[in-house]
Amino acid sequence: MPRPERLFKTQAIILRRYDYGEADRILTLLTPERGKLRAIAKGARKLTNRLSGHLELYSRVALVIAKGSDLHIISQAEQQEAFLPLHSDLLRSAYAHYIVELTDRFSEDEETHTPLFSLLNAALGWLCAPEADLALAARYFELRLLRLSGFEPSLFACAVGQEPLTARDQYFSASEGGVICPEHTHGRAVQPLSLTALKVLRHMARAEYDAVRHLRLTPALHAELERTLGGYLLHLLEHRLRSAEFVRELRARLL
Fold first, then answer.
1. Are 72 and 40 in contact (CB under 8 A)?
2. Which residues, listed in sequence order, are joined to residue 20 by a DSSP beta bridge?
3. How many CB atoms lie within 10 A of CB 66?
4. Domain boundaries in the chain?
5. How far apart, in whole angstroms, are the C-alpha atoms of residue 239 and residue 216?
6. How far is residue 109 from each of residues 36, 114, 166, 229, 232, measured CA to CA in Å?
7. According to the model, what pLDDT value does residue 5 have?
8. In the predicted structure, residue 99 carries a pLDDT above the cut 80
9. Residue 47: is its pLDDT beyond 90?
10. pLDDT at 54
11. Which of 10, 42, 239, 247 is 20 to 30 A from 222, alpha carbon to alpha carbon?
12. What is the mean pLDDT of residues 164-192?
């Protein structure tokens, strides 16, 4: 039988990295065909190493990787998109860290998920746009991530009774997986959801990002959307993301 190929080429987005030993780095990568991988870049912290400068956080890279039993080994790397504004702007960097952490939590090791790779790549680009509404981009990413993961909230029919929702203020239940009409709230943990917020969520669920990014939302509406989707994600993940807390704290200081 022919021996399986030890080397493979792949695109990757760098989700996490940390120093290892005197000069190495261990990275968590999201790839389109091979899912999430862990790999070591030997000598990457040395300025003279050929990998140095090509393995920055959040960047998209072309890699040649040698398969390993525990850790794969990066033998070649070429940066393809650095997403530079994510490194020069603290708030953009905080949002990037948040969506990358979400991606990490909702992805499985070595499980092909090309749409998730494409979504993350697009979202990092949205955060780099000069006039981007960073909070809106994050909410759009959350909804798309929930859809790809099979947890898209019910926004068009009552999550309990399944009847179509009418044009009025409603309620949201994380445990029931979406919007609930007032008639089905009894005995359930719910939070109010305004008609305006529901309309925005529905628009984001149906439209491409280019049709959503021009929306101009009030601070109160932003807060309601963040509270609604954040509560749902908290229910699914069962703990708070430190990156989400950092975004809120930083935004309060800067804005």
1. yes
2. 24
3. 15
4. 7-81, 88-254
5. 31
6. 5, 13, 41, 25, 24
7. 60
8. yes
9. no
10. 82
11. 239
12. 95
Q: Two tokens at 176? A: 């029931």
Does position 238 have pLDDT exceeding 50, yes or no? yes
Q: What is the reported pLDDT for 110?
A: 84
How many CA atoms lie less than 13 Å away from 220 in the CB half-sphere?
3
CA 10 from chain centre, in angstroms, equals: 20
Average pLDDT estimate for 184-196: 95
CATH no., domain 88-254: 1.20.1440.120
Instruction: Kindly report the CATH number that applies to the domain delimited by 7-81.
Output: 2.40.50.140
Say how far apart CA 222 and CA 84 lie, in whole Å.
26
Residue type, 246: F
Both structure tokens of 61: 């890279």
Q: Show Cβ contacts of residue 43 under 8 Å, excluding neighbours closer than 6 positions.
A: 23, 24, 49, 51
At position 198, the amino acid (one-letter code) is L
197-201 CB contacts, 8 Å cutoff, 24+ apart:
197/221, 197/224, 197/225, 197/228, 198/155, 198/165, 198/170, 200/225, 201/143, 201/153, 201/155, 201/225, 201/228
CA atoms of 205 and 198, how far apart (whole Å): 10
Task: Give the side-chain half-sphere CA count within 13 A for 77.
Answer: 28
CA distance linking residue 114 with residue 120, whole number of Å:
10
The residue among 125, 217, 226, 132 whose CA lies nearest residue 172 is 226
Helix and strand numbers (H, E) in the chain are 8, 8
pTM, entire model = 0.93
